Protein 1
Amino acid sequence: MSTIERSSRQSPQLRPPKATLSARKRFSEENVAKVLFVVPAAVFLLLFFGYPVVKNITMSMQEYTTRTFFTGEAPWVGFQNYVAVFGSNLFVPALANTALFTIGSIAGQFVIGLALASFFRRRFPLSNFLRSMLLLPWLLPLIVGSATWRSILDQDSGILNRFLEALGLIQEPIPWLTSPAVALTAVIIVNIWVGIPFNVTILYGGLQDIPEELYEAAALDGATGWKAFRHITWPSLRPVVSVVLVLGVVYTIKVLDIILGLTNGGPANATQTLAVRSYQKSFIDFDFGVGAAYSNILIVISLLFALIYLRANRRAVDE
Amino acid sequence: MNNKRRVTVILAMAAIAPLTFTACAGGGAAPASGGDVKSLTVLDSYNNDPDKGILQASIDKCAAKVGVTIERTTVPGKDRMQTVLQRSSSKTLPDVLMLDNPEVKDVAATGALSPLSDYKVDMSAFAGNSLDAVTQDGQVYGLPLPADTLGLFYNADVLAAAGITPPKTWDELKAAAAKLTTGDQYGLAFSAAATYEGAWQFLPFMWTNGGDETKLDSPEVKGALQLYVDLVQSGSASKSVINWNQADVKDQFVAGKAAMMINGPWQIPALAKVPGVKWNTVQIPVNKPGQTPTAPLGGMVWTVPRTGDKAKQAKAAEFVACTGTEDSQMALGKARNTVPTQNGLHQKYVSEVPTMAAFTKQVEDARSRTGKLGKDWPKAATTIYTAVQLALTGGASVDEAFSKAAAG
Amino acid sequence: MLFPIYWMINASLQPSGNTLTAGIFPTNPSFAGYETAISQQGKNLITSLVVSAGTVVFSLAIAAPAAYALAQFRFRWINAALLAILISQMIPGIVIANALYAAYNDLGLLNSIPGLILADATHAIPFAILILRAFMIGIPPSLVEAARVDGAGLVRAFFSIVLPISRNSIITAGLFSFLFSWSDFLFALTLTTTQDVRPVTLGIYQYLGSEVSNWSAVMATAVLSSLPAIVLLLIAQKYIAAGATGGAVK
């Protein structure tokens, strides 16, 4: 810490006087160079996302059906699709499920992820190998992952219930995927499993970047364990934590494959989320306008979290 | 650094941008080729073996007959419609397109398909029920491949050991299922998943009992739902039926965890691979004597999309017509355990494939899902599987299930 | 954590491809699934590796400078840019895939490896920018300024100072770019129409029909295809470890 401060305080003095002489020219050239750092990314984003965003917004205000794909005709209906979404009996349950699913998944992934990342920070034999193995869930196609989980969670012959019964923890098999009361929990558990590698790896990377000297210095001041975590780890990790959380929310809120693979929104709509509704409206009912309305509502919700992230971010920069 | 060059590159990239946008918005013009047609493109969803290879043989035969080479693309079944829609909007539909029969009316209504009468394809030999699903506004838009449907499979050894004859009525079905439920073996397995598969499996009971998709809260439809509820609540069928697709049902049957199952003839190759399981099939049981077992008619259909190239469309129709000939239908029917869609061929078919006797009768009496509702069928199907799920999980009584599901 | 993986391997060794009647250990293993997978998926595996590696290189090349700029330069519109990047992550993949299909069809990019790389980069680039930026915020500006004092241009300083320091985070971002691309199914399905260019995630569908599926081959393909990827990841990790210890560049 002290080294950093010293060097940044010193640097202005070291700047050669030449810089001030040709400041004007230097300034503009420098600005061009700076802008060039961003231009490729900006062009890419514009090319690949500009059109889809506009399309999704206009689509949500059209009667966009199978017919549209062939004829190109999509009658303008204004906000009628949104009215249909908000008026649906499934909207409120789906919204609640989305909230529970997102909060549950993020909390689980983050806490377990941070714990594992801290655990891996102490090097031990095979730690690198084990950490790589943790990435395995991401290397497997989700269709395989969800099929495996479906067999594990099967009520009658699933290994999880057999295991819990053998331990004497339960008397009756738990209807993981077949009871509307339990299914959402089961889906959250699977999604936590899928999300842990993401959290571990990025948080671990963040932990690695905290200089060891900081801990050594703190230890001299008597700060170890929880105290060290609160005063050193957490503040240093904050930019990484906030990006992990905001991306986590953005990704989790639109999770589709896992739910479709495990329950398809059932039993009795108990695992319907907004993302599942959007998919089903578009690709089962072929009512693409309403489907787009659902996905835009999802985007607006994600946007709220993005704004919170940016606020936190600005504070961090100002500090 | 060499900033100038960089700027040029970026300007060039910026110049391309609007081009890409217009490319996104519009579609290419349809290719116009006159004269001899040498090749056709085919899109189908038999993406896995053995079906993929079996269909290839069938395609090759007809391609040789009409003198074209075929460029074939396969997509997984569940992504078929998505692909069709993409191809529609970019005007890149194939010359020959395979659709599932409930999809034909919807796609035909968009104007994407050309009626087969334009090419004088003779459809008179085809069974009426197989044409219901492919007829829109009086025009036939597709030629049905050999069809499938649902029936009751039973484990012959297990039933014989328990002294049970295959059930013919619902009461017999319930009694047999109850008696066959022992240890970790359930009496009956079926799919009541929250998908179209779940709706499709409910139809045989609903239709056999006189129910109709245009009036889902009738006593006949509720009677069929009551049967499901009775089977699950008595423990004769697993509570997991609401999460099983038809492949899961087959796995349960093969693993000896179900003595009977509702399933279709496409499972026969998989059953044949397990020598320990001796199985047989009968038609769907009826509620009251005198009812006709009525199951849904399943199966794929060849269509000719409007690609704008008249010569190719005509050749494609020639190809499609070839798949409707006796040779082609019998060969495909035998290889895939599906029933030729011309009633005139049934006697010959059953004599050559005796295991398909029950299914052939079931196909003759089968109904098409979109016959009455057309493009509103998906909505009814959603209501059906949701109602089934509600009733089986206790989310609604049998009486309220359909009205509650329809409100969603 | 790893039990489901084990259970999948167990399933892949069952003749039926499912674990309905399986014990804890595959006592009577069948390798039929593996034989099928090895004989049919080799080419797809290479396609997957090439596309994923290409995505990593392309995404990092575009994302790293942008991330650095957003982390260190004092632009006024940084928040707007970040918001735009975040929004790009919220758009459903299928919407992008549909738009790309039409564009690719006209540009002749269907069934091509560069086409898939560009498409997969739509996921990887925004992600990599955000992740790299979060790490690069911590780089002390003095380090770069010191190099500038020695006469290095902004670009050279970026290559000689910023990139080496950020090695950890670049590998993390690269890792996920790889994983995103590796696990992509949607773009592979949408943007390929023939067998020529076909990643393994799509190849696996040749065992998954709408009616009949060969689950032991599916599971075996999943197991086998994760092997080269995990080896790659292990090498990358070794590199991180080496970078971390030797990484006291300052």
Note: DSSP finds eleven helices and no strands in chain C.
Protein 2
Amino acid sequence: MEELRQKYLEAIAGAADEAALEAVRVQALGKKGEISLKMRELGRMSPEERKVAGPALNALKNEINSAIAARKAALEDAALEERLRGEWLDVTLPGRPRPRGSVHPVSQVTEEITAIFADLGFKVAEGPQIETDWYNFDALNIPPHHPARQEFDTFYMHRAPGDDRPPHVLRTHTSPVQIRAMEKEGAPIRVIAPGRVYRSDYDQTHTPMFHQVEGLAIDRDISMANLKWVLEEFFAAFFGIDGIKTRFRASHFPFTEPSAEVDIQCSWVNGQLRIGEGDGWMEVLGSGMVHPKVLEAAGVDPSQWQGFAFGMGIDRLAMLKYGIPDLRAFFDSDLRWLRHYGFAALDVPTLHGGVSD
Amino acid sequence: MKFTLSWLKDHLDTDASVSEIAETLTDLGLEVEEIVNPAETLAGFTIGRVVKAEKHPDADRLRVCQVETDEGVKQIICGAPNAREGITVVVCKPGQYIPGIDTTIQVGRIRGVESHGMMASERELELSDEHDGIIELPSGEVGESFAAWLAEHEPAKVDPVIEIAITPNRPDALGVRGIARDLAARGLGKLKPLDEVTVKGRFESPVKVGINDDTRDGCPLFMGRLIRGVKNGPSPQWLQDRLRAIGLRPISALVDITNFFTYDLNRPLHVFDAAKVKGDLRVHRARGGERLVGLDEKEYEFAPGMMVISDEAGVQSIGGIMGGLPTGVTEETTDVFLEAALWDPIEIAKTGRALKISSDARYRFERGVDPAFNAPGLELATKMILDLCGGEASEVVQAGEEPEWRRAYRLDTDRVQSLVGMEIPAKEQRRTLEALGFRLEGDMAHVPSWRPDVQGEADLVEEVARVASLTKLEGKPLARPHEGVARPILTPMQKREMRARRQAAGLGYNECVTYSFIDRASAEMFGGGEDATMLENPISSEMSHMRPDLLPGLLQAAARNQARGFMDLALFEVGPVFTGGAPGDEQQHITGLLVGAAGPRDPHGSRRAVDIYDAKADAEAVLAAIGAPAKAQILRDVPGWWHPGRAGRICLGPKKTLAVFGEIHPKILKAMGVKGPAVAFTVYLEEPPLPRRKGATRAALKLSDLQAVERDFAFVVDRDVEALKLVNAAAGADKALIESVRVFDEFIGGSLGEGRKSLAITVRLQPREKTLTEEEIEAVSRKIIEKVTKATGGTLRG
């Protein structure tokens, strides 16, 4: 028996491949295999002999089976290793291309502004880009022939011959949305209105189209002090600088009274603008308390309601925040610019994740 | 508006520094744009005395001077002919910057002799063009600041010039006195009283004045008087200095006086040479077609209704805007007719705009000139003419009346607190208004005649807050409209736009923002360009029409990028397109444009030309992102800028188009200079119906444990049979059992013959209650084949 065991274990260990191993298995445990035949002989044995030989043969059979399985696994591993040795790829080759898109800074900053004002309860209001001169001017307390009208460099829409109505205009500011929003919702109201605006001006720092965001908050007792707080909170959140200072300067806009231009704290270090530090000031927006005539024009009773409005340039905010030098490039669609200053699709500005990326 | 510090001090008694004044002006709403302060450039230059001057040993023209300075005696080499012992000079020490020669002085050796500085000429200090010699002062102590000496002896040379921006509501600040009044109200000095002058007329004016009845609304008051025997030479130095400082050219005493009144008191005046005026002067409306050469030597033709001033010979002045050259004063003028009139701002604005004249007079009259200052202004100007030019004045002639300007509003002293949020004592509020010229009677504030902008109670608040300084305003929290967590604020459409944008960016497109207006030719190619969408005053012909579609702008952007060498592009834009020229003729689109190859050349063979199935997949991805229904029709009728055989509309019925995709027509690509291939999609963001679902709960998920079965079929059909027709027919064979039908192969021509193709589909059957038997599967298969052959006229491929 021991001889048999030695013989097969050696044969198994010596099998060079699966075929040789199978041959050993057949020779030992096949139908006519040496061990199988021996097992068959058990029947002819006396019970005493069988009691000894049976378990011994069974143990031998199990041992041989295990040895074959182990050898088989080892052969498979070796074969796999051999195959993998040949399967070499250059991992430094480029991966398959995945296009990388981008979101324009104007869209990104608009969403940032929206996220911040949403937290203060401001909805987003909208209005048409081609406006009547009433919404764009008259309702905002800018009567026809008022010198302020000329300061807007307005684009006018063509009128058919014989059409004597005042020409429609491309809105020169987002302020007409104030009127439309109040007409629709009345008071109290809190809205911002971001969007395209148009002025007939084109040079180093002006483009005939740019973006503004209007803010409007009307309630029983909203004051200019609330405006200052809202703007300071906005700038702190937008630029990610706690305690950023603003300065209000008296100014004049026909649609607000009192009116103020607002500066934010900044400094110039080696020709680089730094927002929120130093003792310089940079003008960023115009604002004020909504003029009673504007409230009246929008159907809101100025003896009952009051509040503030402001307007600021979105492109300009984007330039200040992200250090983008040239306004004209915003609308040129230069791929290099879009990639460099654009934002990833997943950079969704949120208050919990931060509005800066 | 420009003025000098000394000019301001004519009206304001103040010790405030220039920078203090500038900061205060800006804070008051009179924004300072520029300050030019010569004293700053001259800071550091001191007075010295030449105690000894000897010829340079090695140069005939140079002198070695010993100059007594605040730092002791210094040796300075000087080449000026007037450098000599005993003169008082201006010393520039080593290290100082000399503006006129743009150099910083160093200790140097000139022909072997050390020189410790320089003695300056007027030109070197930018005081004048004088460079014949160094400055020789008639007085001055060694070590005294030169700027201080100038301020005392020649103040005009160091008079700081301040330029401020005036908002249209503040015509009063277009005169130096108005600016002084604001500063005084803030407490930066005391407003000096204005002389009250009446010059008694010595004779009756031979020139009379009149206003036609139909012109009295535009010119309510016209006054004047003749001054005879004047001598119109150059005006005195102080007046010339002032005018030059603010950028005006001195012309003659008479003209300079009118300019001075314009800037000093915001009282535009006009002077006629009385010898050239025939008969009387009359304000009337032009009939149309009259012509006049203005003082700017340009000829103007008047439209009917414009206000002009005529004598017997015809139009001589464009009322309130500009005088005429024929009756203008010259150095020979001896008799002058001085005019002071009031003009309606709107009419002046209209006429000025129509004639394209920007004059100081127009600028002021269209903003509003003090109606109560007509007569006093005329008297003051008469006195100045008599003082500077001699002569004697006639009695005043007048047509019309001073218009009513008096009005009063209630001052509610609590309003400042409630509207602005600043606490200002009532007494201070009243003081402020009085300082600005308001007259308080009880709680009624009577508006001064020079403040046409004050039209209500809110204006009183503005004045009080402005003078108190908004810089002092402290922020006060604004509570949220709801307590607690902020509520969502975006509308479904606003969310839709955001999602579409981020989906497109996620798909690899770069977002562009292009102008809303394009050129007519491009607009016409995309179904626009009609006159209704045309701008009346475009900035250029490239931007003349509102865009009818986003594609032309994106194609232009693609062409620009290709010109820079970027041939493969994925660009998109979200924004408005315009169907007409009225408010609301606007739709919100998102358009994606793919140009060139879908990927770069690489070892994996990724490079292939973009095709419509890229555009279609992206259109569907954007539609999915904005929650559009997944099931839609595809129709082939598309606008002409698409390839007629390679474009489709994704629709809910023929009239409800959600999106369009396809290849751009080759003609369009050629016209726009884009190298193709180019495919694109547009999703009409407002079109997909908003989902009706309310609440966040989803429908329960029904999962089957039974194994799904897939069966493949191939059909031979005519080539123009659309796959969707076949898919729909197959899906209709057993709607309960068939979960999906998908095309997995298309084979055209070959052994199938011309005009035939094979479409292979895989049908997935999902049993719900029990496992399918072979017979049941066979039955469904037969039904599928039957439905498809019937619908498409095709046959099962053997």
Note: The domain at 408-468 of chain B is CATH 3.30.56.10 (Phenylalanyl-tRNA Synthetase; Chain B, domain 1).
